[in-house]
């Protein structure tokens, strides 16, 4: 069976990764778990401070699975694994289960999604899975969805990436599975405000009404599992900018 790296951005002790790893191992996959020591939510693809120095690690075992915590980020965990720092290179990467949704254009900042995109950059297919609750009750539902998604990307072209959001409800109460477009950043619940002492801060508003139909925001609210294929940084096949800059520099 393929070797699967499981990582997250909530930390190697987080309940989401502790629910996900044994569920995948029970299917016969060769599971490697490497994740941040601490909560690294919102770090995106950062690997700050991880290049050129030894990385501190700790580990423990639970339900027959060994969990390795690193002093670093989710993207850093993927980088270490795909470069062979933890033995055989993983064939697939599974990131999650993230506590809380990851929807819209703001997934650019998600450590969970960035881990999957980092894998893709090395030619490894990956799935990022999040659950729609800050205090989830139905981890097994998200784990079951993740397992099926992993089986699907296994047969897809190398570097395929899915970001998936799962309602926090029993498996038999899901409304179904739908392809979802990303809600635009203008739908973000983040606002700029000030703290008690007048300091600038970013705050989270309650969900806004009337989400755009067909987006991950709208479909998730209706009880659907949302599936969105994504790609990382890609160049645009257009040399107009270089031509224009060359002209400006030589005029």
Automatic annotation (TrEMBL):
Family recorded in the similarity comment: Belongs to the SurE nucleotidase family.
Protein name: 5'-nucleotidase SurE
Localization terms from the record: Cytoplasm
Reactions listed under catalytic activity: a ribonucleoside 5'-phosphate + H2O = a ribonucleoside + phosphate
Main subcellular localisation: cytoplasm
Record EC number: 3.1.3.5
Organism: Kribbella karoonensis
Binding locations of a divalent metal cation: 9-10, 41, 98
Root EC class: hydrolase
Gene name, Swiss-Prot/TrEMBL: surE
Annotated Survival protein SurE-like phosphatase/nucleotidase domain residues: 4-183
Keyword field: Cytoplasm, Hydrolase, Metal-binding, Nucleotide-binding
